[in-house]
Amino acid sequence: MFETVSMTRVLVVPGLAVRTYVERSVAHLREGGHDARLLPAPGWRGVEDDVERYGRALGADIDRAGAPVSVLVGLSIGTQAAAVAAASTPLVERLVLVSPTIDPQYRTPLKQFVVFVKGNPHERFRAVRQMPDWSRAGPVRIIRCFRSAIALPLENVLPRVSAEVTIIHTEYDPLTSHAYAASLAADNRARLVLIPGASHSWPKDDPPGFLQFMDGLVGASSGDRLA
Asked: CA separation (Å) from 29 to 15, 22, 76, 218?
């Protein structure tokens, strides 16, 4: 399922049944010198449609490859899968969770539907743009994957993660409150990074910012990325 893991320095787990929105930002990481891979979207046909099983499969693939993953990034619902993977293998060195889900105050299908439909002015027409990706999963698999995410509290997974953790919260995120992102960071001795002017779907539309963040995260500790 994840046959390129053995060559990967940066792995990115996209959101629920969507991947196209972040392809340009991951490509920019490669152009900037990172060996970055964008993984299949949870819920797509041929891919696990249960978030926890997706994470376990990814962790098993990393273990089989036997090579460290410098940074494992999870986006939106992908944060839960990435956390499960990081909890299952010591080979993940850094875990980055962008727009972590699912906020306890919205942890029901109805509340999630309401905040998604309400959205925010920074992501107008989001659903229309995501339709081609969603069609690769279909409604049944999307619902199944969504329910699995509701049943998997991220705050129960993170205590089992040994990797260095960074929580990224964006200014305009209707799905994740700042209080939830801050509590995840505080309770797990993680770094909290705030991205002003960005939406839940960051790093969409911000390839330079994503590269700058990754350079700082990896280069500051390894000394081989920044002059």
From this structure: 18, 11, 19, 12
Q: How far is Cα 119 from Cα 153, in angstroms, rounded to an integer?
A: 22
Q: Give the total residue count for the chain.
A: 227
Written as one string, the DSSP assignment of 161-227 is --SEEEEEEEEE-SSS-HHHHHHHHHHTT-EEEEEEEEETTTTTT-HHHHHHHHIIIIIHHHSSS--
5-221 folds as Rossmann fold (3.40.50)
pLDDT along the chain (227 residues), means of 10: 53 96 96 95 96 98 95 97 98 97 85 67 60 91 94 97 97 91 96 94 95 87 39
Q: Which of 6, 169, 20, 29 is nearest to 99 (CA)?
A: 169
What pTM did the predictor assign? 0.89
**How is residue 184 written in tokens?**
């995840």
Please report, for residues 64, 90, 93, 155, 179, the alpha-carbon distance to residue 68 in angstroms, rounded to integers and kept in the order given.
Answer: 11, 8, 7, 24, 32
DSSP-derived 3-state class of residue 30: helix
C-alpha–C-alpha distance, residues 185 and 193, integer Å = 9
